[in-house]
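Tip: read the tokens left to right.
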């Protein structure tokens, strides 16, 4: 198959990237990151999550961050809302501060569903259904994240049929597009393609995105494997930040810088200015007191220093 000629990236750094950080990161820094990402040309940014602050303290400032961002026209801002309580909190602000899209998040693995959102897969769908309906009714888009589509920290390898089952349930409640997530970064190209194919039975290729954590260094090659199936939406984190609090040992999402470097090198358009993106990654990494976790960023900064 011919590869897509353009790709849309969702930077999930402010949410997935920071949710696992033990040190507090101020709302001001998070807002600064969102602003730098939109200036770099990102058209979709996952800003925060409306989850329990007892479970994920780093996201407790969700409303403050949504209030503080100065939106750029043409950019889609999304937030995670696992239940009605989260959705109501996300729309408690004036309309101009509402997210453009909400994300419900389920798992292809029962054990992970229990650990992450404290309920079974079937119960999660029951909880999501009214959230999805309420969002659509208010003109807010709905994405569904599907965790553990190739492997689970508790159950091991996950069969594609389980991914297809979850995709079907998501479709059934009105979710408009889905993320095929390799939460713990164990996937390799053929396995990722199998998870994508199981999802393609229920969603069109334009409604599927790849969300690859880079724990085993496979995220770029898995991105290429998904591109081969025609998938052209991907999620990544500036500076390779991140990890999931309920997936021990899982490292961050693939670095947006590395994905952009690969895509541009293949002549695939992203609309992203790599230099500005690298600066965004440096900004958040300095705030965290570490180096960006991106090989492309490191190489380009070394070259810049000349
Ligand atoms: P629960 O304990 O089952 O819910 O949590 P509950 O309804 O029994 O409520 C318990 C307490 O939580 C109550 O407070 C509620 O008010 C409160 P208390 O009376 O004890 O003081 N509560 C909330 N507070 C704020 N916002 C809410 C909310 N809901 C309940 N929305 C829940 C269920 C899902 C909320 C909880 O398990 C939770 O917050 N989990 C965190 C999940 C999370 O954020 N995980 C990380 C994101 S997912 C991810 O990273 C994967 C992804 O990147 C894809 C991939 O890589 O795989 C997307
Ligand atoms: Mg993730």
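Filled-in amino acids:
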């Amino acid at each position: 198959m011919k590869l897509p000629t353009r790709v849309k990236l969702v930077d999930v750094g402010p949410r997935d990237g920071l949710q696992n950080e033990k040190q507090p990161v101020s709302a001001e820094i998070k807002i600064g990151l969102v602003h730098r990402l939109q200036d770099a040309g990102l058209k979709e940014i996952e800003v925060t999550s409306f989850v329990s602050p007892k479970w994920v303290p780093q996201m407790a400032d969700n409303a403050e961050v949504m209030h503080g961002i100065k939106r750029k026209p043409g950019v889609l801002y999304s937030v995670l809302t696992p239940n009605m309580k989260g959705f109501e909190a996300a729309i408690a602000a004036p309309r101009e501060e509402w997210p453009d899209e909400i994300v419900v998040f389920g798992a292809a693995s029962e054990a992970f569903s229990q650990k992450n959102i404290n309920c079974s897969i079937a119960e999660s769908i029951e909880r999501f259904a009214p959230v999805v309906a309420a969002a659509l009714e208010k003109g807010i888009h709905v994405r569904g994240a599907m965790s553990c589509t190739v492997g689970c920290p508790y159950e091991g390898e996950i069969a594609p049929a389980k991914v297809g089952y979850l995709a079907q349930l998501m479709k059934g409640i009105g979710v408009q597009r889905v993320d095929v997530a390799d939460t713990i970064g164990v996937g390799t190209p053929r396995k990722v393609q199998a998870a994508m194919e199981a999802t393609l039975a229920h969603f069109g290729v334009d409604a599927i995105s790849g969300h690859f954590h880079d724990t085993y260094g496979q995220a770029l090659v898995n991105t290429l494997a998904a591109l081969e199936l025609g998938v052209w939406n991907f999620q990544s984190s500036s500076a390779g930040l991140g990890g999931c609090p309920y997936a021990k040992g899982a490292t961050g999402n693939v670095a947006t810088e590395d994905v952009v470097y690969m895509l541009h090198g293949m002549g695939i358009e992203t609309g992203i200015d790599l230099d500005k993106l690298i600066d965004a990654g440096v900004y958040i990494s300095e705030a965290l007191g570490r180096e960006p976790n991106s090989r492309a960023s490191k190489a380009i900064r070394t070259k810049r220093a000349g």
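The longest helix spans residues 121-137. The mean pLDDT is 96.
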